[in-house]
Amino acid sequence: MRILLTGGSGFIGSHIALLLLERGFDVLILDSFINSSYNVIYRIENYLDNKKINSKLETVVGDIRNKKLLNNIFSDSIKEEKPIDAVIHLAGLKSVSDSLINPLHYWDVNVLGTLNLLLTMKEFECYSLIFSSSATIYGLSDTVPMAEDHKISPINPYGQTKVAIENMFHDLYNSNINFWKICSLRYFNPVGAHPSGLIGEDPIGNPNNLFPFLTQVAIGRQKLLKVFGDNWDTKDGSGIRDYIHIVDLAEGHLACIDYLNSKDACLEFINLGSGKGYSVFQIIRQFELSTGCQIPFSIQSRRDGDVAECYADISKARKLLGWTPLKSLDQICIDGWNWQMKNPNGYS
Ligand code: NAD
Ligand code: UFG
What we know:
Elements: E1 2-6, H1 11-22, E2 26-31, H2 39-50, E3 57-61, H3 67-79, E4 86-89, H4 96-101, H5 103-123, E5 128-134, H6 157-175, E6 181-187, E7 189-191, H7 210-219, E8 225-228, E9 240-241, E10 243-245, H8 246-261, E11 266-272, E12 278-279, H9 280-291, E13 297-300, H10 315-321, H11 329-342
Parallel strand pairs: 1-2, 1-4, 2-3, 4-5, 5-6, 6-11, 7-10, 8-13
Antiparallel strand pairs: 9-12
Helix pairs in contact: 1-2, 1-8, 3-5, 5-6, 7-11, 9-11
The chain binds nicotinamide-adenine-dinucleotide and uridine-5'-diphosphate-4-deoxy-4-fluoro-alpha-D-galactose.
């Protein structure tokens, strides 16, 4: 099979690309590189060479909002007799705080970009799609674990764009029920890195998220970790989240391809998480235990928009996809630290 992977050089996309190529898929990455490095591509190519993997990796530098470009990609693939069998769509903007400042930019890139992609897929009769949605669409509720039928009530523009896209899928599927095969995967907190240390998360500027911040404290790029609140209504007062190893998350996409291939038509919304909740203090302790690093931290006030507890009910993913996360929190810490040590300044 040949897969079009939008956003394929980003944190999550690069791990999916590597896994797809290792399993014999040909991959065409479309990425604007607005939030990623071209070194990702070189590293994946080297990895394939070293392992003598023959799957084909092609890269197009471009924007999903460019309709003409999308059209060319699909028409060339037909002319060259290597049609695109399915699309994994990850390209987009993902910062909650930035989305509050630049909401229209988020609607433009995430929603219009996805609309362009769907229009082009329809025109070229490519009906299989896996999309990167987010647990952020569940909003502020404190009911855990969160199953897919949990109330949808995003509290920031980023989350609104993910909901708008999921609504687009509903309308599309209902209009054309015999054709479309769509899975919208709602990620919880993907963390860690590929065990090789070749690819990992490399945020531009100061990381907003706990895990990359913590590894940067460990390597000395940040002085100390700010813990946003120790007075939440949780077992130790710090916030609880569902951290899933990035390779487990990537495996979920492979399982999803098998699922789509087994169907004539479908539209599913599926949580991808570990199904377990860990507090910030537990993460710090486990990281120190797994790596031998000391993590200095200070308690700060709560961060706006945070919830006490958020973790997934993953029974649907287990049942429908036959997928289960395999990697422990210990492994997440070891692989995340391995990536940070081998790449103290990320890809640069
Ligand atoms: P990322 O920023 O590392 O990857 C996104 C990629 O999309 C980048 O390589 C970027 O250059 C590219 N891109 C951005 N705008 C583009 C455009 N207009 N045209 C083409 N390419 C464009 O982010 P990630 O963490 O790998 O996330 C991937 C997807 O998963 C995103 O859609 C994000 O919303 C979603 N998601 C991420 C998380 C998370 O915690 N990382 C959680 C839930 C959902
Ligand atoms: N936290 C800190 N210090 C930090 C960063 C985070 O204490 O420097 C705490 C937060 O308060 C929270 C936990 O660590 O309790 C996790 O925070 P993250 O920012 O790592 O993750 P979130 O769950 O807040 O959000 C992430 C993405 C969202 C996505 C959501 C669900 O940033 O875009 O996961 O997928 F929607």
